[in-house]
## 1
Amino acid sequence: MNLEYFIAKRLITAKDYKSSISSPIIKIAIAAIAIGMIMMIVSVATGIGLQQKIQEKIAAFNGHIVISNYDNNLSEVTLTPISKDQAFYPKFNSVSGINHIQAVATKAGIIRTETAFEGIILKGVGEDYRWNNIKEYLIAGNLPNFSKGLNQDVVISEFLANRLNLKVGDSFNTFFVKEDQNKLPSSRRFKITGIFNSGFQEFDATYIIGDIRHLQRINKWNSNEVGAFEVFINDFDNIKTAGEQVYEQTSSTLDTKTIIEKYSYIFEWLQLFDFNIIVILAVMILVATINMVVALLVLILERTQMIGILKALGANNWSVRKIFLYNAFYLIIRGLFWGNLIGILLLLAQQYFGVIKLNPENYYVNQAPVYLNWGYILLLNGLTIAVCFTVLLIPSYIITRISPVKAIRYD
């Protein structure tokens, strides 16, 4: 039998344990660990969740890597076409980790209705476009089908639909300026088949998605010419390496840019979340540790006579210290249990019911996304136990300074 564990267990289950002077301090220590664990789980889950959701959203509408012409065009509009006769299209076999590549083109225009007008960019896509990426953002209607003949179907953002007072099934005229400004603009009439809301204001306020063949005709391109290629990879963590490999495998007349480079201001902002998460973890563990140190010191002082008796009976310092460390470990486990339980329940509530809403203009999402992973939860628990237990070795050293004679006489 483990004598130290047996004594610690008796101390925990003793009736006077709950009514002792240390009882409120112990409860505060348990509450501090529970609250700290809740804060750590929620901060990590929402921080990583927000990062991943924004990454997925930007990639869904842009691809992970964009291959375009090597020119001075800094706008979102395609000026010079690229031939589809490329070694990397339609399968990019020379670079591992690429799962899809699609051809697109863009052109600026103006939507004109009876009551309003709005500047837009028509993103032309073909039958190779991966609609599944944006399907989750569709809030009304259906996605168009461009696998057959040329049609007028488009999907438009909820933001533009509201500003133009349009709905699914409505048709509208769009005017595209020609390169020769002396000529009248080209006109196309489109029909709304679906409305999406990505929460990504920069895209929602500008883009509509339609058939690329309209742009090919307006720009007088042949059917083999497109504006750019969007490349999708399997692992976002390897996007920098994949971008360099794609650049090496494309022609010198083509340029490649990852979405991290294209939207650098967003990803720099996302990196701040890593620092915030680290600060929260450090503060919460520090608070929990301080409370546990105070609780352990009170427990030691409260049991001074018991320590003296154990030493008088022949117990060494380490054996006595182990009794109180077992006791402290029990308190830590209780705090972690309630912290994990409440924290995970809060995350599940947010994941399934979306309780906490966010302003998409500031956070690019409509509600706080959650990344629930048992790996990081176990890691947080292990880190908390390790840090608290290591620090608690210091106050337990006080036991070695307690004299059996003075302790027995201690009142």
## 2
Amino acid sequence: MSGPQSEGWAGKRYENIMDTWYRTRREDFFDGVGPDVTSDFFHRFEEDFRRMKEAGVHSFRTSVQWTRLIADFETGKPDAQGVAFYRSMIEAAKKNGIELVLNLHHFDMPTILFERYGGWESRHVVELFAKFAKTAFECFGNDVRFWTTFNEPMVIVDGGYLYGYHYPGLKGEGRRGVQVLYHLCLASAMAVEQYRKLGLKGKIGLIVNVTPAYSKSNGEADQNAARFFDWFHWRSFLDVSILGRFPEELVDVLRRDGVLWNAKEEDEALLMANRIDFAGINYYHPTRVQAPDSITETGWLPDRYYAHYDWPQKRVNASKNWEIFPRALYDVAMAMKTLYPDTPWFVSECGIGVHDEERFRDPEGVIDDAYRIAFFEEHLEWLHQAIQEGADCFGFHVWAALDCWSWNNAYRNRYGLIEVDLSDQRRTMKRSGTWYRKVSMRNGLEK
């Protein structure tokens, strides 16, 4: 989960853009539910870690909220109450034998930095993020061994600038989106630089959502469409973070189209010198693409080079309209082995969201989510095969340990091993939580 999705905004000094979006346009959020309370992890983290332990969860990812930890964004000075909260949370995780993976940014740009400087369009904000990262490392770097800089940075580009489904909800701003993509990569490298300067003994990485592209045919045009989709949507972040350089083919296209980012001469060396130790891969579904009928000449968007198509044989999660294709996790693992053979990685998110889970409540009052168990079993079987074939995958995080707030979709779909009742915040283990505990204890599926 992440801080914005679990903590609620209690005790925060500043708003992030999701807080502001909810405060000003509650009608955009499913059932009007926003980040004011969410799962109330801020007050219930001790109980939640006990529940996670009961479910066999050994490792948990959350994020440090920029708007909670920092008192002065320009200097990076910490907020004493924010520091105290995160220290207490870290201690509670340790007490329950849970290894934390702390992420620095999960779609939660401070509103004041967005309004004052333009958010990730500003290089100054990139530098302020590095100050925030340094403060987080200084405060908690000796207590947390695994850090990540960003979760799903492409969502910031896609949702905020290209297709309008995340704040600020812009559409068709391809040139600005490409600059944001570059600044996110630069910010990640600067955070890695700060981590290494402090001589900390842990590891630092980046989490990327991978929706691997499958082409409609083996024809050259369809294959090229799939390649460009992968270059832009996930290899852009992984190549530069692991190899120290962007895909040459992507750079060539962006330069030819006149939308290549603005950079400083010294950036190249900074990106090369500050590569990540490990990667997190969020996988939910694949992407099916074909060659576009024509290239639009008005504005620039990446989908000028590919078009989506509907695969007739697909299985679909009707609650989300996402294709269920477990085999793709194997293919992603093999791609990681081929493209980045020296970089270990883990599945940082994988799960299924289902609407109105109350309809699956059994006579004992427990959510009987057999569909979630089946989903995980299929994906774990394919991942196991990939590991047997040499994939350097060291872990698997389900999404999610508890039902959590999902941005403007709120609690429309539930993802957790543990149910959260919004009326009283009561926690109840689902059948999948009991199943997961058995899998965790035996470190494998039952045959």
## 3
Amino acid sequence: MSTESQSDSDAPELAAPRDRGLWSNHDFTKFWVGETISLMGVQVTALALPLTAVLALNAGPEETGGLRFAQFVPFLFLSLLFGVWADRRRKRPLMIGANIVRCVLIGLVPLLAWMEALSMWSLYALAIGIGICTVLFDVCWMSYVPTLVDKKHLVSANGKVNSSFSVADLAGPGISGLIVQIFTAPWALIIDSFSYLVSVITLSSIRRPEPEPSPGAERHLGKEIREGIVFVTSNPFLRVIAAIGSAYNFCYMFIDGLFVLYCIKTLGFDPFTLGLTLSLSSVGGLLGSLAAGTFIKRYQYGRVYMVAVVIGYCGPLLVPLVTGPTWLAAVVIGGGFVFTRFGLSVANVVALSLRQAVTPQHLMARMTAGMRTLLSGLGTLGALAGGFVGASIGLREAIWVGAIASAAATLPLFFSIIPRLRKLPESPEEALEFATAQRTA
């Protein structure tokens, strides 16, 4: 894929960006709108793909856990490689290419179902392909946003993107559940396929030139991967975020690989009830995204993160705890997850902004790749483990194991320097000065 040839010298506005709010930053708005629409499709796929396995292919715990493993295993093996690649190239063309391929792969699911050629093995293969594109896109967009907005608008920009996740969480599962209820699971994926086309159009319309990556005297793949890993593991902020985040994601994916099967088989949900429950629970995520900026202004930055993490990581305890009629289970899980998603959403905005603030731009993609390898890569192993444990000891018992471990994942944060961080650092140098002062205090 070719890249643009615009250099920094041809883009003086990048050297001295104008002081303007996000609402007047039309290029960020284009990115934001396209990402919001594609995220809506992602949420449809997140529910429709496992429902396709459960309802159309009669999948059990090992198969549903394996499907989640297939979706996320590329994060374990490709994030670091893609991080180096993205640091060498402009991000926008890579993002456009990734979304074109995702559009095609997701569209193949209903096509194969129509041809009566869909199987678990074809779902595994398509899930891996979609996951590869998702790795590339995620590594790029988190590094691309800081080139679209000024540093002082970074928290606001991340909050808006995170609110898009929450809006997609709110509407996507309900829409998906309704479509699955009416048309069967594979056809709900058509929405996701078209959503990526919209993202391609909006990304292609962005006019702001992207800075040319520094060519460097020599390029060495292994050395550049190592630099990204060392930076994440040696930075006192990033290694804590990576440690607790990867532990939580392992537990989340452990539960998530079983959740659809648990709700359908154990709690008696139909697809629409399942989708509606997940949609209602996402109200908390939207509220958290909108409130994150206010909390940061009023309270200490690190304290906001700590409280949000505790709320979010303890929420999965509600899933195996609930018993009784289907309507009560739906209300308890949906209502309880409002608070869970609220905490996770605030924590995500705070953590992402902190990651970007403490990282030099030339390492941004490799930092993102290293974090994604730990956060999503280890989560992938959680999905595989959950499937085997669920098949061995039962769905509810396995979910209890994952939920208790999720709550325990908060402990390292209390012994770190992050809770003592009063505000978002202005630069990587300021962040290291703060860390050094805390160590010598």
